[in-house]
């Protein structure tokens, strides 16, 4: 966990704008003026902006005009070529980098006060002695409480150069006076691997939430741990994973494929082809692999699933993936902003493109396809998946696979009906579980002191009364009347998972949730059949 609040993985496709990113960046060192003066059409645009700036009857922010113009141009391209304004670029880059410099806490704004949920294990705050439940009141004498304080302001005050000190004033329940801590800022990971643990004696599980710069390193650490624990099979969970860096996906695939097996190839508009092959270094080439995907698994996630499926390696389990087969490169526009421009398409080893159509009905319909799939019944019945015989391909072992719109799994698992309940989707999306559990835990943090992580996950049972309290809490927050009678067990299970995450971190939330996950149950069943 880190500064950003932990959202449950309820993605409805919009996050795939991150796309598949190639590693390199292009830097246009010319000024913005020079960039628009190469020919008459570009000069026309530059002149128009100058006319508006100098001659228009009212003062206009021409920066905003340029932003609108750039977005307008990109809207006429594909849905994944995007403009990133300079005020957003730093945070976007940081998220994909995989770490940042800070004090190492996950926090929650509770009654206008910054309250620590957990400290990062081994991080600066834990080393300094800060604990869950502590209220951070001051940072170097500056106030961090009050209705006027925004999360962005808090983060900026707690961040700083690596190795620099920040003096924190803390209120801790039970202490008669405020506490003072000097915390030395350090590198804080933004984890892209949520969990790595054993499902059975032979089946390991790894959950990857995106493909950032540090993803392969995190994945390899988790894989090595599971191998040491006796794993001969791996369930790689890429559900709700919107993608990221191409190189990270290639390195993960390389762990499972033998030397010289084709992972993918890319082709640009000039017909230039670049191929990527597996090396001999893979540590799980002889193991069994299951890849879990759903309708929100996109780009780099689809590269992994497609490469393994087309090489007849392992089993793809779940529902048809998102369908994004375009590769972007980030290009610096010279003023602190950037554009992620689609530069090529990628193809799976059999030669199929899994990019779904986007030119026919515009970008809105493209992003609304989730609803279309739901209405067609595709998320419940694999026979409703639309395929084209013209896009049929065959793997080396004779398995038929299709291009044109996502990876179709080998084993279909319908969407959990409970997740179609609008009330449950709403409370998951807006962090009601996290906020409620934090408040309950804050009433008495010592109530769970004697419980080990393993015992809590496997044996601890919440009282039914907590579900009623949660129901009352949601009603007070939304001023509506909701009831969990039909989904009492599901709500209780998510409450326990959320409590596990706040108490123990390090994948505890996923371990609890997965105990009643239908796709995980299907993978365990498949594993036992071998």
Automatic annotation (TrEMBL):
Keyword field: Hydrolase, Membrane, Protease, Serine protease, Transmembrane, Transmembrane helix
Pfam families: PDZ_2, Peptidase_S41
Lipid metabolism in keyword set: no
GO terms under biological process: proteolysis; signal transduction
Keyword Hydrolase: yes
GO molecular function, one term: serine-type peptidase activity
Protein name, per record: S41 family peptidase
């Amino acid at each position: 966990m880190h500064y950003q609040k932990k959202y449950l993985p309820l993605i409805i496709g919009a996050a795939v704008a991150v796309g598949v990113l190639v590693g390199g960046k292009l830097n246009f060192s010319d000024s913005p003026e020079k960039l628009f003066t190469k020919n008459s059409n570009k000069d026309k645009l530059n002149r128009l902006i100058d006319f508006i700036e100098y001659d228009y009857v009212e003062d206009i922010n021409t920066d905003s005009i340029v932003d609108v113009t750039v977005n307008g141009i990109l809207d006429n391209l594909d849905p994944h070529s995007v403009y990133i304004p300079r005020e957003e670029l730093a945070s976007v880059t940081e998220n994909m980098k995989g770490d940042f410099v800070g004090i190492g806490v996950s926090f929650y704004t509770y009654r206008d006060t910054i309250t620590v949920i957990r400290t990062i294990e081994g991080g600066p705050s834990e080393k300094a002695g800060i604990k869950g439940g502590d209220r951070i009141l001051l940072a170097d004498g500056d106030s961090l409480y009050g209705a006027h304080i925004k999360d962005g302001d808090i983060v900026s005050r707690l961040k700083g150069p690596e190795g620099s000190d920040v003096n924190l004033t803390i209120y801790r329940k039970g202490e008669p006076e405020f506490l003072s801590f000097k915390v030395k800022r350090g590198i804080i990971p933004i984890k892209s691997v949520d969990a790595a643990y054993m499902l059975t004696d032979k089946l390991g599980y790894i959950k990857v939430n995106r493909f950032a710069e540090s993803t392969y390193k995190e994945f390899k650490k988790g894989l090595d741990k599971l191998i040491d624990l006796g794993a001969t099979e791996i369930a790689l969970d890429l559900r709700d994973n919107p993608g990221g860096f191409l190189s990270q996906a290639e390195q993960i695939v390389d762990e499972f494929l033998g030397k010289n097996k084709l992972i993918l190839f890319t082709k640009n508009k000039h017909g230039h082809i670049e191929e990527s092959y597996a090396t001999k270094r893979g540590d799980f080439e002889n193991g069994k692999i299951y890849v879990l995907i759903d309708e929100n698994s996109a780009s780099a996630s689809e590269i992994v699933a497609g490469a393994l499926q087309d090489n007849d390696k392992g089993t793809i389990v779940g529902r048809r993936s998102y369908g994004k087969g375009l590769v972007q490169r980030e290009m610096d526009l010279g003023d602190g902003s950037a554009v992620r421009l689609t530069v090529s398409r990628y193809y799976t080893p059999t030669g199929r493109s899994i990019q779904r159509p986007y030119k026919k009905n515009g970008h809105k319909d493209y992003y609304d396809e989730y609803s279309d799939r739901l209405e067609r019944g595709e998320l419940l019945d694999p026979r409703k998946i639309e395929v084209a015989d013209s896009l049929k391909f065959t793997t080396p072992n004779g398995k038929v696979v299709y291009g044109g719109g996502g990876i179709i799994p080998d084993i279909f698992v319908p969407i959990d009906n409970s997740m179609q309940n609008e009330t449950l989707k709403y409370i998951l999306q807006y962090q009601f579980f996290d906020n409620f559990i934090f408040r309950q835990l804050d009433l008495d943090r010592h109530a769970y002191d004697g419980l080990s992580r393993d015992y809590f996950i496997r044996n601890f049972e919440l009282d039914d009364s907590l579900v009623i309290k949660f129901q009352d809490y949601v009603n007070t927050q939304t001023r509506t009347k909701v009831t969990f009678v039909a989904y009492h067990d599901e709500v209780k299970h998510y409450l326990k998972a959320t409590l596990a995450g706040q108490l123990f971190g390090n994948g505890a939330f996923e371990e609890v949730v997965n105990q009643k996950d239908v796709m995980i149950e299907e993978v365990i069943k498949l594993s036992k059949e071998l």
